[in-house]
Alkanesulfonate monooxygenase
Amino acid sequence: MPVDFIGLIATQDGSESTPATGPLVNRDYTARIARAHEDSGFDQVLIGYSSAYPDGAQVAAYAAAHTSSLKFLVAHRPGFVAPTLAARTFASLDHFTGGRTTLNIITGGHDTEQRRDGDYLSKDDRYARTDEYLTILRRAWTSTAPFSHEGRFYKFDDFVSQVRPVDGTIPLYFSGSSPAAYRTGVKHADVYMFWGEPLAQTAEQIASVRAAAAAAGRPVPRFSVSFRPILGATDDLAWERAHAILGRIGSVTAPRFFRNRDKDNPANVGSQRLLAAAATQDRHDRALWTATAKASGAAGNSTALVGTPETVAQALLDYHELGVTTFLIRGYDPLDDTIDYGRELIPTVRTEIARRDAADLVTA
């Protein structure tokens, strides 16, 4: 099974453990970190969504102008613009980036954050709206004739778009760890995304998505898992660095991307699952470390894989054996870590997967 690597870019440096410098919209930094991901062998970069931060589609367009092959996974929350407008927006972006656009659908797990943009629906209603929204979005990308729609959340007449994605549609990435998320996600997702839990819990999540897909009569999506690798020349040096990072979390005024309002009682199930794993022990499996999730309130993907590039590569391969084919990896020192991942970690994983695939062909 081939593997894809996704990073993360923002318009300003900084993380939960590293203070941001410079303006919020730093064009030079945005171009630099995008090029660093491309040069380091990443396939895509995620552009996150926040009610207070720059628009992801515009960030993607700018970064695409400074790269040639990198794809842009734009986080998008259904409900704040009409799906017909979103269909045209992202189809247009897909053309201007040369077919390098993908979408990360964020239904929304934080009521407070949703309300900042004027959304007061309950969580289950948000998933119902996402279902309707994505149904319209897919049809808007493929229909060559005007169509009308009247549903629970959207109504329009005689819509047709003259701009369609380069390859006919745009891949949709989806996340969520609740039963409502599974039911909605399997209807629409090309890739289902999880945060970095222990292997046993990740296997449970994969099984839940597979079961939901079977119940809905839908194909099983591909799977992605997200981590924060912390590398060192030796395992001991990596752990020394990891504890230094942990000591800085909480002392840095982090962007809202990285904060839960109530870090001990997050509303979304994904964060609750990370904190539950952290409550049992800090270290899991080969290299998984959950102390960083506990310190940050598990706001976003916040669990680390700690060790040498070889150790962390083997840990990623453990997840690959579960059926994971996409890894979202981002560092606590965003730019420097991106470069480090490209030197050894990404090539090591790709080489080993290619070796295993070749061995499988020989024995088939």
Q: What stands out?
A: Residues 191 and 222 are 5 Å apart (CA to CA).
